[in-house]
Amino acid sequence: MAEYDNLCKILAEKYPRDFTRWLLNQEPRTIEILKTELYQVRLIVY
Predict the structure, then answer these.
(1) CA pair distance 46, 28, nearest whole angstrom
(2) pTM reported for the whole predicted model
(3) Cα–Cα–Cα angle for 33, 38, 39, nearest 5°?
(4) Where are the alpha helices (DSSP H) in 15-46?
(5) Structural domain of residue 19, as residue ranges?
(6) Structural Rg of the chain based on CA atoms
(7) Do residues 12 and 33 touch, judged by C-beta distance below 8 A?
(8) Phi, psi of 30 (to 5 degrees)
């Protein structure tokens, strides 16, 4: 499970727009990456 978490963190950090598009199947207008202990991707999609 940890391998998938790391992969998702890397993809979200390096390719946030593509990752969001793939995950939500929508075009995001604003993406904000919050760097915390666990990378969290805050997605705002209109």
Answers:
(1) 7
(2) 0.64
(3) 20
(4) 16-24
(5) 2-44
(6) 10
(7) yes
(8) -135, 135
